[in-house]
Structures are given as C-alpha cells and as structure tokens.
Write a structure and sequence with these properties.
This protein is mainly β and 210 residues long. Helix content is 9%, strand content 41%.
C-alpha cells in the first residue's frame, strides 16, 4: 500500500509534464512608434515610421485622430491621441506583406496613457472582413504605462467599423489570419481630461503571406 501511495504523485507529475504546451513563442510581427515630425490632425501615412505598415482611420470622428507631441516635458513622446475626435473613432495598422496569425501565444505590448474614465480597447479586422473589439481594456493611469497581454485571454464582440459601436459576442473567432490591428475608446474624445494616448505598439504573431 505504501508503495502505491508514493507512486501516485510521481505519475501525476509525469502526466502534467506530458500535457504542458510547447513553448513556441511567435516573433515580433511589427512595431510602430511614429515619426518624430510635427503634430497633425488627422494623422496621416506620413507619420507612420514603419515602412511595411499602412494606416487606417475609422468612424464618424476619424478626422480628429491626432498625432501629438509637446515640447514640455522634454521626454514627452510622439503619440497617437484620440482626445480630439468629435465622435467615436478608431485607428488601425495593416502590414503590406502579410496577415498575422494571432493564435497560440500571440500577444500585444504597448505604452499608453489614459485620463478620465477612458478605456482603450484592441480592434482586429479579420481576413473575412469582420471587425472585432476586445473585452480587455487599458484603463486610466497616472503616467505613461507599458503593458503586455495575451490574445488568447481576450473575449471579442463584433465591431461596426462605420459607427464604432460594439455588437454581439463572437465565440471562438478565427484569428489565424488577421488583416488590421488597432484600437478605440468606443467613445468621443473628451480632450485632455478624458482621452487616450498610444506612444508605441508591438504585435507578436506569425506572419501569413497574403
């Protein structure tokens, strides 16, 4: 009996090891941190630093999406600001060469700053043309904040890209071919007291040829 009791934990450890997923972390698909040139609204393709990326602006308030920067403080970055959107707006980036597979251990890293009650949400355009918006949201912070989150842990709703309004839940969407990646507040800009800022974004996923 004693021999059986000792063997059981050992077998459980072996079973757990056999079930552990392979650590196949995807590469950096793209990073964007914007050219250090004069601020403008709406932001244009000229402000995109990564030559492999195309810019998209969406929603009734898209002309208010601003590339911003201030001379003081001296470490103020060149960033995307949604605070001047007169109504809901969104911004997205698209690779010229490839879709991205955001399954498995895919993730996003970004440096953001939100004020007021603003929450920044990830948006995806699938190869099918469907747009999604994340339940995950980056909330208000006192200062610039770097964060990282796994795509696998997110739930998604449909996004009406014309109105920037969320719709029904989408269970288990196919994220193996994602066309565009961006963000929105799902709200009009509230200027400095209620707005979001994105300094840079990194997307980790496997490229899929277009």
């Amino acid at each position: 009996m004693r021999r059986l009791l000792l063997a059981a934990p050992f077998l459980l450890v072996l079973h757990a090891a056999a079930q552990a997923p392979e650590d196949s972390r995807p590469p950096l698909f793209f990073r964007e941190d914007w050219k250090e040139i004069a601020a403008v609204a709406p932001v244009t393709q000229e402000h995109v630093a990564n030559p492999a990326l195309l810019l998209g602006l969406y929603g009734p308030g898209k002309d208010g999406v601003r590339k911003s920067h201030h001379d003081t403080p001296k470490d103020d970055p060149y960033y995307i600001w949604l605070g001047s959107c007169p109504s809901s707006c969104a911004i997205a980036l698209r690779s010229k060469e490839a879709f991205v597979d955001l399954t498995g251990l895919a993730k996003v890293r970004w440096r953001t700053k939100q004020s007021g009650f603003r929450n920044l949400r990830l948006t995806l355009k699938l190869a099918s043309g469907m747009w999604l918006v994340s339940d995950y949201a980056e909330g208000p912070t006192v200062d610039w904040h770097e964060s990282e989150f796994a795509i696998a842990g997110i739930r998604w709703r449909r996004l009406n890209i014309e109105t920037i309004v969320e719709g029904a839940w989408v269970e288990k969407p196919d994220l193996s071919k994602v066309d565009e990646i961006g963000w929105t507040e799902l709200a009009p800009g509230g200027n400095t007291p209620a707005s979001s800022r994105v300094d840079w974004i990194e997307v980790y996923g496997k490229p899929v040829k277009r």
